[in-house]
Design goal:
The protein has an eight-stranded parallel barrel, surrounded by six helices. Helix 3 packs parallel to helix 4, helix 4 (about 90-105) packs across helix 6 (about 130-140) and helix 6 packs parallel to helix 7 (about 160-175). The chain is built from ten helices and eight strands. It is α/β, with parallel strands linked by helices. The structure holds glyceraldehyde-3-phosphate (G3H). Glyceraldehyde-3-phosphate binds next to strand 8 and helix 9. The site of glyceraldehyde-3-phosphate has 15 residues, from strand 8 and helix 9.
């Protein structure tokens, strides 16, 4: 299980260099809010051989917008391009995922596409993670992810229990997809996450000390790395 940490700036990224994946985002623009291409570029330089991920946003059914943003993130240097589906329509999900996969993989076949659905999909009225995964697999994406869509401090574990997260991870494995789990995860969730054993867990609030709108703290990143490895 690898640790993905989400800094929101170049300054914060300096505290995340020992994580397995550095995930560039702009929390002020939503759960998977996109940061600027120059920030992705600078963090990629800073990261050296550590893979860099970039969130491109929480999207409605707008495949053109999503594909262009995905291409932009890949051109800026992201090794992982991550999109959230903030709508509930299977056909539209297929269009968005197809667009994003093609935009990234045609020029950069080695890059990784991550499709996120939200653990709080019922309250958001968005596509369920287990419905999204088979579509992501059919379209050639690499990872299916769960995150919380509304960042109000409620954790993914408040919306999906261990069994549901395990079923999602197993389903993805059988579809040939990797799994990333996130959503206000806490240090005390790490043992159960290790039992579920997704390929990646993603954190921000945990390494900010609980409030994801504050700065990432180097000592909390070190603690998370030590607990995960
Ligand atoms: O990709 C993972 C997210 O950045 C998780 O953020 P969070 O832990 O604050 O919910």
């Amino acid at each position: 299980m690898k640790l993905l940490v989400s800094p929101s700036s170049i300054e914060e990224a300096k505290f995340c260099l020992d994580a397995d994946i550095i995930d560039v985002k702009r929390p002020a623009e939503g759960s998977l809010g996109a940061n600027f291409p120059w920030v992705i570029r600078e963090i990629k330089k800073l990261a050296g051989t550590t893979p860099v991920s970039a969130a491109i946003g929480d999207y409605g059914p707008t495949p053109g917008n999503a594909a262009l943003a995905a291409y932009g993130a890949a051109c800026a240097g992201a090794d992982f391009v991550k999109i959230g589906l903030m709508f509930n329509d299977k056909d539209a999900a297929r269009d968005v995922i197809e667009g994003v996969v093609r935009a990234v993989k045609e020029p950069f076949p080695e890059k990784t596409v991550v499709i996120a659905a939200y653990s709080d999909y019922v309250r958001l009225g968005t596509i369920a993670p287990h419905v999204m995964s088979p579509i992501a697999a059919e379209c050639g994406a690499d990872f299916a992810m769960i995150d919380t869509g509304k960042k109000d401090g409620k954790s993914t574990f408040e919306f999906m229990n261990k069994e549901a997260l395990q079923a999602f991870t197993d389903q993805n494995r059988s579809l040939g997809l990797g799994t990333a789990l996130a959503g206000s995860l806490k240090f005390e969730d790490i043992p159960v996450l290790q039992e579920i054993n997704p390929e990646i867990i993603g954190v921000r609030g945990m390494v900010c000390g609980g409030d994801r709108s504050t700065m990432v703290k180097a000592e909390l990143v070190a603690k998370a790395i030590q607990m995960v490895r």
